[in-house]
Structure formats: C-alpha cells, structure tokens
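Q: My labmate handed me this sequence with no annotations at all. I'd like to see what the chain might look like in three dimensions before we decide whether it's worth expressing. Could you predict it?
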Amino acid sequence: MENRPELKVKIECQNVSKSFYEQGKELPVLEKMDLTIRENEFVVILGPGQSGKTTLFRMIAGLEKPTTGKIFVENKEVTGPGRHVGIVFQRYMVFPWKTVFGNVEMGPKLKGLKKQERKEITNHYIDLVGLRGFEKAFPHQLSGGMKQRVGIARALANDPEILLMDEPFGQLDAQTRMQMEQETSRIWEIEKKTVCFVTNNIDEAIYLGDRIIVLEGKLPGRMHKIYKVDLPRPREFTDLAFLKLRQQITNETELVL
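A: Here is what I predict for the chain of 257 residues:
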C-alpha cells in the first residue's frame, strides 16, 4: 500500500476560549476548543443555536479575538482578517450598486491585477458557479441562491487558501438550499480548497463534510464529538449509510432533524 505524506495543517485552534462582557458580567461562549483542519479538507462545524459555532468561525476568520488560547492559519497566529482566507456569510454580502461581474472582480482589482487578467479570473469563477449570462445583472435582479453564488465566486476569485462559510444557505428555501449544497460539493471537488463550513443542519453536514465537529448545545460551547464521513461523493440523501450516520448523530446530540 502506498504511503501518502500527511497533509499539512491549515487551521489550528489551541485551547481556545471566548467570553463576552456585558455590563461587567462575563458571558462564556466557547470553552477549551482544540481543533485541527488539514489541507484540502472539508470540515463542518455542526451545532444548534447558542452553541458558539459562529463565534468560533469569526475567530478563525480574524473578526474576533480569543479570550484565551491561540488560533493559527497557515502556521501564523491569527491577529486579524487575512487575504489568504475567503469568507462567505449567511447574509448576502454583495454590493448592490455593482453587477455580478463587478462584485466578483473586486478581489483581483484590489490586488492590482491588469484588466485582461482580472477579466479572465472573473469569467472563470462566474462560469464555475453557474452564472454565465448574468454578468451584467445587479443583485436586486437575482434570486437568493444566485446572490449566494456571487458571494462564493467573489470569495474564490481572491484565490484563498482557505474558504470559511458561515451558514451560507440558511436563508434559502429547501429546494434552493439542496441545489446550493450540490453546487458547493461540485465546486470543492474542482477547486480543492480547505473549507470550514458552519451549519445547524445534520443532512447538510453529512452531505458536505469530510469530518463533522459537533458542538454541545448550551453555552459555553464545547466540542461534543467528531464524526468522520466515509461516504463516496457525490452523496445521496437516501443512501443507507447516509441515513445510518444521520440517525447516529441525531441520537447522540441535542440536534433535531
């Protein structure tokens, strides 16, 4: 059997805790989080509301600082947002005054790339997310799913080493959400980025993740259990192994389907 070198660590949380303070009172949100995410891995942070998963996401993204412990991205301690990390939020973070092309082009433009190179990169990611033909459309002319495709394309156009996604499909209807899950899996297979994906949906976690990190449901959030998802891609929601893992996670956590 071929010996494969171990993939390098892209994200590492070392004994991370986070508290907020309101009117002099401490509110612990996360406690003693130890987490390692490796190159090209798709890791899902799964937990109900008020489990601290978005706070963990924001600390990895450099938008919040740990109260104790340290977070490393690419072996460098996180002290703020970095260009090597792409972020997709739950809200549609698109510029309403810019077209689809203008939104996706933002990163390459800020990098100072020449016009032709920017055009090639932008068109590539517009094609990748299935928005060819909508380059001149403005956000108000797009559906929710299409707006989120714009957000994903814009994040990828920066060529980040790591893609962070915080419940990006939470505002979508069930059918559009399933389509976006399928698209995300397809794009990840092509791009092979390291992905950290936050959700409260068990089916979504199993469909997308290589590993699922489950957080307990009461503050402060703690790591409850890690599940490795050994299912071939593309995955089927009705596959027996899928349903078995779904039931196992449901039985062992406070999450509901």
